[in-house]
Amino acid sequence: MNTVGTVIGGGLGRAEHPGPGWQRLRWADLAQRSGDPVVPDGLLPCYRCFPSVPVNGSWPITIAPPTEGSMDRETWNRLIRLLRAHSPAGAGTRCLAYYSSLMLGATDFDNLHVRAGRLGDAEILYDNPDVDFSPSNLWAEDRSWVICTDYDLWATKVAGPASLIDALLKDSEIEAVRLPWTPWLGGRQGSPYQGRGNRRVRGGGVPLGDPSPEHPPAGADPRSGCSV
User: Fold this and answer.
1) What are 101-110's pLDDT values in tens digits?
2) Residue 86 CA: distances (Å) to CA of 154, 169, 190, 195
C-alpha cells in the first residue's frame, strides 16, 4: 500500500510565540508584501494560500509558517476572552468541547467524548495532556456560538451573534476574515474564519459532535461568522 501526502513546510498541532527575535506577521501584511490575496477565491485558509511566498516549495527561513489543526496559544486565549465578553453569563457560561479522533491519534472513531465545563475555565483546555491540539469544537451549551478548528486548515471558523463577529473582525490581536464563499458548518452561506497569527498563523479541526453540521447553534445567524 502506497501512502501519498503533501509536504507543506509547517507543523501540526499546538504552537506559541517562537521566542525573542520573532514578531507576528499578519496575513494582511504578508498579502501586501507578496501580492497574493489573504485567501484565494474559493479556498479555505490552508497551505495553498500565499503561493508566491515559498521558494522551490520551501518557506523562507525568516518566516515560520502556521501549523495545521490547532490555534496558537495567544489566539486561543484571546478568543476565549472575547467569547466571555459576548456571552450573557460571561465566565459562567456553560460550554462543551470536543477533540476530533484525528487529534487523539486516529485510533478510535467509535467512542467519542465531549467535555463540559465553564467558559471561564476554557483556557486550560489548551494544555490538555492527552492531546497536542486546541479543541476541534467549542460551543456554548445554549448554542449561541460555536467554533470549529479543522485538522487540515490554518484557521478556525467562528459562528455566533453579530456582536461577537464584529468584535472579532475589529480586534487588534486576532486577525479575522470573512469568506463569503464558504458554507457555515453544513451548507449555509457566510460564516467567517478567524486567522491565527504569525506565519505563524494557524487553524484546524473536524466539525464532529454536537452541534451537528446540519444544525447551526440556536441564536447564531448563519451569515454571522468569520475565520480567525
Assistant:
1) 776 666 666 7
2) 24, 14, 20, 19
